[in-house]
Design brief:
The complex is a heterotrimer of chains A (257), B (334) and C (288). Chain B has 334 residues and is mainly α. Chain B is built from 14 helices and four strands. With 288 residues, chain C is mainly alpha-helical. In chain C, strand 1 and strand 2 form a beta hairpin. The chains are: A alpha/beta (257), B mainly alpha (334), C mainly alpha (288).
Chain lengths: 257, 334, 288
């Protein structure tokens, strides 16, 4: 079972909300340095799946292995501390504080103190550096603006920064492209590719398939909590169950998107 | 009838003092540090200028100021509404009293009671830290009641009579200046902690954005516990101090007053700052003591004040004063 | 046998003390911390009408209940209505009102042993070999009566159904044209009357004291937390649990422990099962 290459293995995860199976026996595994897309129609249990993996809600059944450790019963903060970071779809930054201050709590964490980022000394300076890394223009004083006044694209990157401050080995991104304009997405895709090439494993929950398949070629498809497909974009688009459940039998939706 | 609207504008000196001009002239410097300076000077000259009746009340007020800072800190910055002030006072008071009764000198028993008491309080509150809002308020309110009834029922630590004959402070000036020093240090220290320290930022996240804190690899309960420890240490010091003010320790240290008045002080003074509760306590305690001749009518009086402030003046005194200090208002036609 | 009967009496007393608090919270999410004060105030008003003004006994009680209903309505209409949705402020305000009422009564002369209202019927009888006064029997019957009344009220009357709707989903109820403020006035007012009713049933057993007001509040909180706030079933079961636990401690340990038991149960339940014995998932999320 121990395979050096596999960083995340999800085994028969289950969760029901009052009789409705939100996640129904989902299993998959992911190689170190890989990128996995998670797609599915609204309400198919994608966000619940993330919450289960990262320990934010209790599992009804199933196991999660990260770096060969069983993390099924761990608390969220311990999982993050172990190197599995996540972003939130709904961001709630410290609205009245400067943007870079949002990165200070993760820099204050035990994990950051162990890794290089926390050792560099002045946390404010490190925070601004991280923001600049993901495209906050320092010249325009963007890192110092109130977080509440920033446009959505910056807030999404702020979420990523919160993860990056932890020096994670795996980041689970909950819809980083949703709600962004085309030009914002266009600058986001290279950023994700850069994270990937920096050796960070990514799980990307997405609606925007075209951008997703620019970054990765492997995805799993959820429908009503069940995993109905797992494979390359080609395999997924040709899968009959995916066509029926997700695209209503009409695959033109994907290409015209 | 033209409609009028109140317009508020920042005073010029405030705008200047916010930017790089802050230290350019005496006027700006005084604008910034003036209010704090007035408070400190007031605290320093009060002990020598008060008549002896009010000196004792000032000592008591100091204890309430510390409790109120602790309450305001937990409520405004950590999101825990703790009505356990009496638990802190009682714990500190009893530890210091017990140590003193077996011969430990006062200057040692007070610091030990502060630290050990805070530690014990944090430990007993640890299991209920995940509770939110009202539920934490209720359970923390119940703890001191429980402790008092337990002492009465078991008859330990002197039972309902308490322990008398403990050391008292050598003279009233030592008594008061110890308190003044502690209050000044705690007040500015806490203000610095919540506004400028990274720990303060994390605690704010604990209140407003639990999920992001968890996802940042920070243990929520651990930071709540740290915050409770800080607040409990202030309360325990207050209790130990009271023990050596009266030279006696007893069940009245678990009195509900210590739980309720900090809340009232915070409501009256204003939430969301460290100084609001300080102002609230410095007003409420002397007023309540001055009304003592009226018997329990004084409680009615401050209950009414409390309800009035909650319902009709929820910004509190501090925010009101701050507004007047930093802005001027005038009516404009719409 | 004696334990059983006194346990039942004590449990029923707890139900009578708590049900008003549970109703107001269950319907409108208003934690009415002046509950204990309203309980005592009713007893005191009944005493004023009966002993001081010389009105007939039942008329005095009826007037006292009417009065407390108006106090409850006023409490909501003039104070709590400004604070909806801010639970901590609601607690502070209602506790402040309760504090003011109780301490005012203490100042106005509610001290010592002399003040009480007589029971409905004097005298004692023997039930299964246990000597029991009529008032305690009335308490049992009254408690059962009130539970049945509330059951039918919330299941069959229009107002009761509106209460239920608001308790379950306030927004949906608003969309259906149920006035949530009017329902809340009614709920707080009814809660006050129920508190008063509890007072009228229970106070004849002893003296009317200010301390009793605070204790009733603590008991109401204990029962609500142990049972799971807003759950009728929870109130009944928790009352019996605490009621019997108290009787047993009084019997086998010592009488001054009975208050400790209630406090201990609050702490244990909040630690072990924060949703209370009959709480629902939704409530658990609110608490933890």
């Amino acid at each position: 079972m121990t395979n050096d290459d596999i960083i995340l293995r999800v085994d028969n995860l289950e969760k029901a909300f009052g009789g409705v199976k939100a996640v129904d026996k989902v299993s998959f595994d992911l190689k170190k340095g890989g990128v996995l897309g998670v797609i599915g129609p609204n309400g198919s249990g994608k966000t619940t799946l993330i919450n289960l993996i990262t320990g934010f809600i209790a599992k009804d059944g199933g196991k999660v292995f990260f770096k060969d450790k069983d993390i099924s019963k761990w608390q969220p903060h311990k999982i993050a501390d172990f190197g599995l970071a996540r972003t939130f779809q709904v961001m709630r930054p410290y609205a009245t504080l400067a943007a870079y201050k949002n990165i200070i709590p993760p820099l204050y964490s035990p994990r950051a103190k162990r890794t290089a980022k926390g050792k560099l000394g002045d946390r404010s300076a490190v925070a601004v550096d991280i923001l600049e890394e993901v495209g906050f223009e320092r010249d325009a004083r963007v890192p110092y603006k109130q977080a509440g006044t920033l446009p959505l694209g910056y807030l999404k990157r702020l979420e990523l920064c919160r993860c990056l401050a932890l020096d994670p080995e795996l980041i689970i991104c909950d819809e980083v492209f949703s709600g962004l304009s085309m030009s914002e997405i266009a600058s986001m895709v290279p950023l994700m590719e850069r994270l990937h090439s920096a050796g960070i494993t990514l799980v990307m929950v997405e609606h925007r398939l075209r951008e997703l398949f620019q970054i990765t070629d492997r995805a799993i498809v959820l429908s009503f909590g069940e995993k109905i497909a797992d494979g390359s974009s080609q395999e997924i688009f040709e899968n009959e169950r995916v066509k029926q459940a997700y695209f209503g039998g009409e695959d033109s939706y994907v290409t015209s998107e | 009838m033209p409609e009028l609207r109140k317009e508020r504008l920042d005073r010029g000196v405030k705008v200047r003092a916010e930017s790089i001009y802050a230290i350019s002239s005496m006027k700006e410097i005084m604008f910034l540090i003036g209010p704090g300076l007035v408070l400190v000077i007031l605290l320093l000259i009060l002990p020598v200028s008060l008549p002896s009746f009010w000196q004792r009340i000032m000592a008591l007020t100091g204890v309430y100021v510390l409790l109120s800072i602790g309450f305001g800190f937990l409520a405004s910055y950590v999101g825990l509404v703790s009505l356990g002030g009496a638990l802190f006072v009682g714990m500190g008071g009893y530890i210091s009293g017990l140590l003193n009764s077996v011969g430990v000198p006062m200057f040692l028993s007070i610091p030990v009671a502060t630290i050990a008491g805070a530690l014990i309080c944090t430990l007993v509150l640890l299991p209920v830290l995940p509770l939110r809002g009202v539920y934490f308020a209720i359970v923390s309110f119940v703890y001191p009641l429980f402790a008092a009834r337990l002492i009465a029922a078991l008859g330990i630590f002197g039972g309902t009579d308490g322990i008398a004959g403990l050391d008292v402070m050598p003279n009233v000036y030592v008594l008061l200046y110890v308190m003044v020093a502690v209050v000044i240090v705690v007040m500015f220290g806490m203000s610095r902690l919540v506004n400028y320290e990274d720990l303060g930022l994390v605690l704010r996240g604990v209140k407003d954005n639990e999920q992001a804190i968890k996802a940042s690899g920070l243990n929520l309960t651990w930071y709540k516990a740290q915050a409770v420890f800080i607040a409990a240490a202030m309360g325990c010091f207050g209790g130990a101090y009271l023990t050596h003010l009266y030279g006696w320790v007893g069940m009245s240290l678990f009195a509900t007053d210590f739980s309720i008045l900090p809340l009232a002080a915070t409501v009256v003074g204003g939430t969301g700052t460290i100084y609001g509760p300080v102002i609230g306590a410095m007003l409420l305690v002397p007023i309540s003591e001055a009304l003592r001749p009226f018997g329990t009518l004084r409680i009615v009086f401050y209950a009414v004040i409390l309800v009035f402030f909650v319902v009709f003046f929820s910004e509190g005194i501090l925010d009101y004063l701050k507004r007047k200090y930093e802005q001027f208002e005038h009516w404009v036609r719409v | 046998m004696e334990l059983l009967i006194y346990g039942i009496v004590n449990s029923m007393s707890l139900i009578l003390m708590t049900i008003g608090f549970a109703l107001a919270y269950g319907v409108s999410r208003i934690p009415n911390f002046s509950h204990g004060a309203l309980y005592i105030l009713t007893g005191y008003m009944a005493y004023v009408f009966f002993a001081m003004l010389g009105l007939p006994y039942f008329l005095a009680i009826l007037l006292a209940l009417l009065f407390i209903g108006l106090v409850g309505a006023a409490l909501y209409q003039f104070i709590l209505i400004h604070l909806r949705g801010m639970p901590i402020s609601e607690i502070i305000a209602s506790f402040g009102v309760g504090l003011a009422i109780l301490e005012f009564l203490r100042w106005a002369g509610l001290r010592g042993m002399a003040i009480t209202i007589p029971p409905f019927i004097r005298g004692t009888t023997t039930v299964f070999g246990v000597i029991l006064d009529y008032q305690r029997i009335i308490i049992i019957l009254g408690g059962i009566g009130i539970l049945f009344f509330l059951y039918f009220f919330t299941s069959y009357t229009k107002t009761g159904l509106a209460f239920k709707a608001i308790a379950q989903n306030e927004r949906a109820a608003l969309a259906l044209g149920i006035d949530s403020d009017r329902a809340a006035v009614l709920a707080v007012s009814m809660g006050a009357v129920l508190a008063g009713l509890g007072g009228v049933f229970l106070l004849p057993l002893g003296n009317i004291t200010v301390e009793m007001g605070y204790e009733v509040l603590i008991f109401a909180l204990a029962v609500s937390i142990v049972g799971g706030i807003g759950s009728w079933k929870g109130v009944v079961y928790a009352s019996f649990l605490i009621g019997f636990a108290q009787i047993l401690t009084v019997r086998y340990i010592a009488s001054h422990w009975h208050f400790v038991v209630a406090l201990l149960l609050i702490i244990i339940v909040l630690i072990v099962k924060p949703s209370g014995l009959y709480g629902k998932q939704k409530e658990l999320e609110e608490r933890v």
